[in-house]
Design brief:
Chains A, B: GO terms for molecular function: phosphate:acyl-[acyl carrier protein] acyltransferase activity. Chains A, B: Pathway: Lipid metabolism; phospholipid metabolism. Chains A, B: One of its GO terms (biological process) is fatty acid biosynthetic process. Chains A, B: It catalyses: a fatty acyl-[ACP] + phosphate = an acyl phosphate + holo-[ACP]. Chains A, B: InterPro entries: FA_synthesis, Phospholipid_synth_PlsX-like. 2 copies of one chain form a homodimer. Chain A is α/β, with parallel strands linked by helices. The first copy, chain A, folds into 2 domains: 156 residues, Isopropylmalate Dehydrogenase (3-Layer(aba) Sandwich), CATH 3.40.718; 159 residues, Isopropylmalate Dehydrogenase, CATH 3.40.718.10. Chain A is 45% helix and 17% strand. The first copy, chain A, is built from 12 helices and 11 strands. In chain A, helix 1 packs across helix 11, helix 4 runs parallel beside helix 5 and helix 6 crosses helix 12. The longest helix of chain A is centred in the last third of the chain and has 26 residues. In chain A, 54% of the residues are buried.
């Protein structure tokens, strides 16, 4: 059995390497063809791993002495040659790993993917693509870009749509993924110049199932498989509904625990709330692939906990299993 | 007692004039110094008014024969001279009314405000500014622009901040309103060129309490009084959290009515849910002033019902009462 190997940069996220290791060990126990190369401070890693049970044939530790910090810029990728992020990227570049997962700083990660892993042929802009929870039980929606590039052209958005469609076919198993363009209104004349350019290009591209513009109001409705946006708009829209979800759930919790009678009544509904809260818990969709890179590269929230890292590692594993890079290459070449 | 007069364009919204009239009659009964001039189809208006009790000295009906439809463009403002929207704008221009409220089409309304009411001196871009519900019981937040202008410069955003600050002082009674800039990150270098320009201008403006960038995640947290944005970003952010709020509440409702036991338990918590749902119900903040116009001009959602129109009319009334135009003029002149 050929192992799927993830180079896991465990340094540089807000919560240290403990949740990262916990998540990885959990996924290793569930996926028997998964191998994890932990990249980071060997001493800390070994101390943590010593407390765990796992298949030693599928775990490796590579020591690094530097860390890309959250405050570091893109040039630190060139400066910190012995950082865990750079080392993990190099393992992927050199074919020792199939993919990288990191919870580290965003801008250096994007730069590192460009410099070390290189973009796919024909792609000039990369895009972060998380999978969004929706109220449609039969459909998840992928939203991109949510912040990798904030200055783009219409043709970049078309490329996003092509890559995301190939990804949705490969990973979500959707035959003809429906694509919409995030915009401030449904009419095709709406938005900025790049919206109108992208609209035209996508509408004319016979390999895409483009259904038109979509307002941000419907992102979580599960009306389409893929929503395309510039990184500025996508970032604002994503964080906006995430914030509302979190705030609304906390307001409901406060209202239900306001007095003892409510607390008692609410007890029997705990399961019902958990169902909804879990569905919209952004910890379960904390990961995003950086699309447009020639290798599989996943970023988890900087504040990831075990649950978040687990979700991101699982997405990384599924991207490897479904050979998404080959499929995207072929789609771009069409 | 001097009457505050609203010219109310009751045609052109999705639900016809019945909810509009219901809302106006309700507010007339609560505010004894309010006068409403209903502008629209006289026959329909009189038929509806005949079913109502109200102070006839504070109600007027002006007949118009045309309607600005939702599908109309900005040029229809010039073409449809006997439309209810144009007539209502002219009543304000000519001093027969202190303000206009409409649920009609957005683009023609913005154009009509520019052509007929004129912008404030020194203002080149107008901005829609709704008041946003927040989880902070002591603070409402005003978000602007949410879609009047999608191509702006840094200096336009500074003007938005100046006008919104004057408005917050006058209407919300906030002494030194705190202003933040909506952006994809907190660092001052983040975003597009206009963000960095606006950041600099607002930071250097001693009449503003500028606190820096804010991510869309925190819009509903009530951290500041005013959030400034370009109309593209503001529109995406606003509709994104509105959509999530609606979807999350409907998911919770579905989870709580999934079986008979849950239904019974949920019954006793109805009041708790109502509290939260009401707070975040966008019907209660369906109205937005168009800032930058030389008269008070309010737009309510095209799909406004009685509750929405009532909220928007009440905001219009409060803007008149607090003489916001004079105060904004003086703030711009500083």
């Amino acid at each position: 059995m050929e192992l799927k190997t993830i180079a896991f940069d465990v340094m540089g996220s807000d919560n240290g390497l403990i949740p990262a290791v916990d998540a990885a060990i959990k996924l290793l126990s569930e996926r028997k063809d998964l191998k994890i190369i932990f990249v980071g401070d060997e001493e800390q890693l070994k101390a943590k791993l010593a407390t765990k049970k796992y298949d030693k044939n599928r775990v490796e530790v590579i020591n690094t002495t530097q860390v890309i910090e959250m405050t570091d810029g893109i040039m630190d990728i060139r400066r910190k040659k012995d950082s865990s992020m750079v080392k993990a990227l190099e393992l992927v570049r050199d074919g020792q790993a199939d993919a990288i997962t990191t919870g580290g700083a965003t801008a250096p990660f994007i730069a590192g993917c460009q410099f070390i892993l290189k973009p796919l042929d024909g792609i000039s802009k990369t895009a972060f693509m998380p999978v969004i929870p929706t109220i449609n039980a039969n459909r998840q929606t992928m939203l991109l870009d949510v912040g990798a590039n904030i200055e783009i052209k219409g043709e970049d958005l078309e490329k996003y749509a092509i890559m995301a469609s190939a990804y949705a076919k490969a990973v979500l198993g959707v035959d003809r993924p429906e694509v919409a363009l995030l915009n401030i209104g449904e009419e095709k004349s709406k938005g900025l110049d790049f919206h109108r350019e992208a609209y035209q290009l996508m509408a004319n591209n016979k390999n895409l199932s483009f259904v038109g513009n979509i307002e941000s109001r419907y992102i979580t409705n599960g009306l389409v498989d893929i929503i395309i946006s510039d990184g500025y708009g996508g970032n604002l829209a994503l964080k906006s509904f995430e914030g509302m979800g979190k705030n609304l759930l906390s307001e409901i919790k406060a209202a239900l625990t306001k007095n003892i009678w409510r607390k008692i009544a609410a007890l029997s509904l705990r399961k019902a709330f958990k169902e909804v809260a879990n569905k919209f818990d952004y910890k379960n969709y904390a990961g995003a692939i950086l699309l447009g890179v020639s290798k599989i590269a996943f970023k988890s929230h900087g504040s990831s906990d075990t649950q978040s890292f687990f979700a991101t590692l699982r997405m990384t594993y599924e991207a490897i299993t479904n050979d998404v890079i080959t499929k995207m290459k072929s789609a771009i070449g069409d």
